[in-house]
Give the backbone structure.
Amino acid sequence: MHSNLINGEWVGTDQSRPNINPSDLSDVIGEYASSGRAHVDQAIEAAGAAQRGWAATNIEERFAILDRAGNLILERREEIGRLVSREEGKILAEGIAEVTRAGQTFKYVAGEALRCSGETLQSVRAGVEVNITREPVGIVGIITPWNFPAAIPAWKIAPALAYGNTVVFKPADLVPGTASALVAILVEAGLPKGVVNLVMGPGSIVGQAIVDDPRIRAVSFTGSTRTGRAAAETCARLGKKVQLEMGGKNPLIVLNDADLDTAVNCALNGAFFATGQRCTASSRLIVERKIRPRFEATLIARMQALTVGHALDSASQIGPVVDRRQFDSDLEYIELGRKEAGRVVGGEVLSRPTEGFYLQPALFLETTNDMRINREEIFGPVASIIEVADYEEAESVANDTEYGLSSGICTTSLKYAQRFRNTSQAGMVMVNLPTAGVDYHVPFGGRKNSSYGSREQGQYAIEFYTDVKTAYTAG
């Protein structure tokens, strides 16, 4: 059984959970610990005991450990990328790319440990000096989803450590293998015991215990909107910091003047790659009337030509859905689409040599923005086309959603590109690019019900992982 990491030791549990490959249900990757609240308590005690010493560690040593971890991840990108593909289901090229990003994130954030600056100001009172510094929050609880098992833990754990915090890390129950590999690398890189603690198990037990415990002073969560809201309420009551990344219903506008190949490529990538299991996926394709027939026909042809298969098969362009629960949810929405939309292309269950959760991409045609399929996050290889008369209607439809994570526009008009960048009610805007796909050194996050709290990644991560202290000194 693969164990938790608590206070630098691999600690077993009485219960375990099989880690099953969604490409081949007969392939059990391993048995992984399924923890209870007592294990979380042990992890928090270890993190608390280690926090002061880690915060006092020389910043160059913190840099060296994180940079070394980044190098080790990059050296093993193919090995860990294969593990990502086995347990999450994204194709091998995507798995390796994700692990590469995780390594790059650790190396970038390592440098941020050296750049944590402060200010010295003159007071309005004579003879008084004001010093403004940043200090670590303390113990940080990190709760991550299954769709990016390497990248998202990296962009949360790395800055937490860089700024002197200790971590209690709960990965998604479906992808414990990647989490275990990452923390093992941190130990190998020289991280002192107790600084990072891995506790695997169900969110209803392990995640809730992390949120509930007042010793944890900040919680960074990525997952469903419903769970995130509940976590925010508890954190507010306990007076702890909270950072939420939640759902999305991201629009991609295609204007009449768009380059057709660019627009189709953006839609194909954003909607269907990674099996559509990205919070930044393009689920609403908002297309101006004149270009709609050509765009629709070309997209359907390209979509139907995609090869869905085993994640480790080099011929596959799309892997399986992550598990039975998500698979059934996707099928329910496809059935709903058959009732709501004018027409549905694709969406069939596929048979492959190995038993897995294989689903043909689906495209809903002749839809309106008020349909449930265009209001609720589906989180699968499913998208809708919404026809609009002009840019003004496209902009209105794009913003008519409770979410605001990512948005995109395909156009050759500088006027409309600039206007949409200014008026889109999303945290990230893409022009002639897929809505999914972001860099590791710039802020990530959205608005409305997509995000809450300060941004993740880049220099903006410091806002969440540190507290500001103002000190006055009389001369």
The mean pLDDT is 97.
